[in-house]
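Standup notes, structure subgroup. Blocker cleared on the flavin mononucleotide input:
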Amino acid sequence: MSVKVMGVTSGRKNSNSEILLKEALMACEEAGAEVTMINLKDYHILSCTGCTACTKGMSEGKNVGCVLDKKDDKKKIMDVMLSQDAVIFSAPTYDLMPTAEYLMFAQRSLSYETAFLETIGAIEHKDRVAGLISVGGSTRAWQSMALEGMQATMFTTDMKVVDMILATRVPGAAQCLLDDELIARARKMGENIMKAVATPPEERGWLGDEDMGWCPNCHSNALVLGEPQWDGLHYPVECQVCGAGGTLEQTEDGKWKFVIQPDGLLKDRTTVVGRARHLEEIGATQGGFYSNPENMKLVQQKLKKYKEKQFKSI
Ligand SMILES: Cc1cc2nc3c(=O)[nH]c(=O)nc-3n(C[C@H](O)[C@H](O)[C@H](O)COP(=O)(O)O)c2cc1C
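Run returned:
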């Protein structure tokens, strides 16, 4: 059976995100993969209503799907996407972040939460790898949350990111075609994806640029000062993508590096085990809220004032 690779983009038609994605996918096809590609602009995707019917169902041991399953194209795409061995995502950067179209699509994935569904036996585990391409007109400075925003959308569907490209300084339509190095790098991503798929899942690791990012765990470039977490865990510095905890250390050549402490990967969001810790948090915080009738009564009392208050709209 041939390897299945899918490309998902939200870029302009025949422009940078599509071109770089196609270059990567062509390398996969040449290596024997069966390739599928979609542009989210061709599909109707509604935003998550926030009803949490999906996760409430999961907490009762059932896979109830999404209330919007029959109302838009999300399910149609996911049925294909989740049967892939690898998916490459590419998205333009708008306002430092991945485009809203991409995020709206990705944030509809809660009803596919693999860790939940696997735990209740509703789906079988599948190992998938992913590549991420983020395209912008500027440099890293104006794409500061672009790849990181895409990385954050990989957890729900358990996509292991093995390569990422920050495509900078390509504001014009199809401008990336003038940058041979960038095109070659996109091709390399396709090769890396095929290499990862051919590697046993437990041995799959990072294949992207060695020195990419601050975080040695997920290669994000985004760190935050740690604050006490719900269970008291407190790291001096955290990776804002994977949640790795540690501190900054200065090397002999005066450069700074993020060093993960021995228990720093307790809540590594790139792993099912690490994400399970978040399920504990939801259980304690959200579960504690809903299961106490006194909370419900008090909220209903206090809510009245806000429900009744209406401002002029447009
Ligand atoms: C509304 C809007 C906001 C943008 N914001 C950013 C930005 O914050 N940083 C950046 O590097 N480029 C920004 N850009 C430039 C696009 O990322 C750039 O044109 C890119 O090539 C678009 O990808 P595409 O050709 O695949 O559609 C913005 C473009 C638009 C239209």
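Discussed briefly. The chain has two domains: 1-212, 216-314.
Next: hand off to the docking folks.
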